[in-house]
Specification:
Helix content of chain B: under 10%
Number of strands of chain B: 11
Helix content of chain A: under 10%
Structural class of chain A: mainly beta
Strand content of chain B: over 45%
Number of strands of chain A: 11
Structural class of chain B: mainly beta
Radius of gyration of chain A: 13 Å
Number of helices of chain B: 0
Order of helices and strands of chain A: EEEEEEEEEEE
Strand content of chain A: over 45%
Largest sheet of chain B: 6 strands, mixed
Oligomer: heterodimer
Number of helices of chain A: 0
């Protein structure tokens, strides 16, 4: 499968726990974007990364959320001390040169 | 003012008809424009992109761009029930920067 991979597909956490979402971009892509989508709502941009660099994190909440895209391995979106309002679908997209984005299947996070 | 605006719908068309989906954007300097389809519970799937004024056709889909009016549309000819989904318009102001997505238009094609 040469597409964007995300895991886990479903993640259940209790309030106060940490959630780690992983994204492997399409082969050859070095640009990764994270989005959040609440039920019946549009996609909200969170962060844009290239290898080892955060390019734009203007959509990222200032607290509890962080993202990285290391030289080796997948991009990680980390949510510390999750709250119920963090329950959403989190989508990762990748692009070759910062243009056309291709989406992964998403991670559905449920906070109990 | 929102960066990208779409009518939320729902838009209903009979099978075989033309579905017309519209999108406006606020930044006149925007460079590239995308249409994604999202089925319920699934991730967005790229349908088409367009960079230049005019029409771009791909099978049953035609994207139309009018930069003077800051308007992008997607036409779906010979609509099928399988086209029933939410259609998202996205705008890239500058290559390499974030996309701005509209909230999507829900389309239902009635058999």
């Amino acid at each position: 499968n040469a597409g964007v991979m995300q895991n886990p597909r479903h993640l259940v956490r209790r309030r106060g726990q940490e959630a780690r979402l992983r994204c492997s971009p399409m082969k050859g892509h070095s640009h990764v974007y994270w989005y959040r989508q609440l039920p019946e709502e549009g996609l909200k941009f969170m962060v844009y990364l290239q290898k080892e660099n955060i390019i734009d994190e203007s959509g990222m909440p200032k607290e509890r959320f962080s993202a990285e895209f290391p030289k080796e391995g997948p991009s990680i979106l980390r949510i510390q001390q999750v709250v119920r309002g963090d329950s959403a679908a989190y989508f990762c997209a990748s692009s070759l040169g910062g243009d056309t984005q291709y989406f992964g299947p998403g991670t559905r996070l449920t906070v109990l | 003012q929102k960066e990208v605006e779409q009518n939320s719908g729902p838009l209903s068309v009979p099978e075989g008809a033309i579905a017309s989906l519209n999108c406006t954007y606020s930044d006149r300097g925007s460079q590239s424009f995308f249409w994604y389809r999202q089925y319920s519970g699934k991730s967005p799937e790229l349908i088409m992109f367009i960079y230049s004024n005019g029409d771009k056709e791909d099978g049953r889909f035609t994207a139309q761009l009018n930069k003077a009016s800051q308007y992008v549309s997607l036409l779906i000819r010979d609509s099928q029930p399988s086209d029933s989904a939410t259609y998202l318009c996205a705008v890239n102001k500058v290559t390499g920067n974030q996309f701005y997505f509209g909230t999507g238009t829900s389309l239902t094609v009635i058999p």
